[in-house]
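Subject: design request, 147 residues
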């Protein structure tokens, strides 16, 4: 498998972090790498299975299916936290920080669950990235430097 120079620099920089895990914003393959180029490189490496990443919801709004669900007069087939989110974003786009869900650690889980069910539309960003076992194997066994 051939990889581009920027992808190799990305992987090698990831090796410098504890557990080969880092925030995407901490990886800078070169001084001139733009945010969009870093994101694109990350997605290419994810597609190849060399790294994996987690996504974080940074904004959301109610989807048509969510609006329809709120209009039902019958017992709603969703939990209390989920209902609270749907009602909160019924009229406007929100960020997770604007939600009053306790414990706060549950916000991302609730938002991702509603997004997966198509009840809200989410805007996400890559949060954390890490080197996968195939990525470690590639760097250890398959990659051979040229030059």
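Subject: RE: design request

Done. Sequence follows.
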């Amino acid at each position: 498998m051939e990889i581009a120079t920027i992808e190799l620099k990305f992987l090698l920089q990831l090796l410098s972090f504890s557990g080969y895990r880092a925030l995407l914003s901490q990886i800078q393959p070169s001084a001139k790498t733009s945010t969009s180029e870093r994101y694109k490189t990350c997605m290419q490496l994810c597609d190849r299975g060399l790294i994996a990443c987690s996504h974080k919801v940074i904004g959301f709004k109610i989807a048509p299916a969510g609006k329809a669900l709120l209009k039902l007069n019958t017992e709603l087939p969703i939990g209390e936290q989920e209902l609270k989110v749907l009602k909160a974003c019924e009229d406007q786009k929100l960020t997770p920080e604007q939600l009053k869900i306790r414990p706060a650690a549950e916000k991302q889980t609730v938002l991702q669950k509603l997004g997966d069910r198509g009840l809200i539309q989410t805007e996400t960003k890559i949060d954390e990235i890490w080197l996968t076992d195939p990525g470690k194997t590639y760097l250890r066994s398959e990659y051979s430097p040229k030059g």
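The first helix runs from residue 5 to 15.
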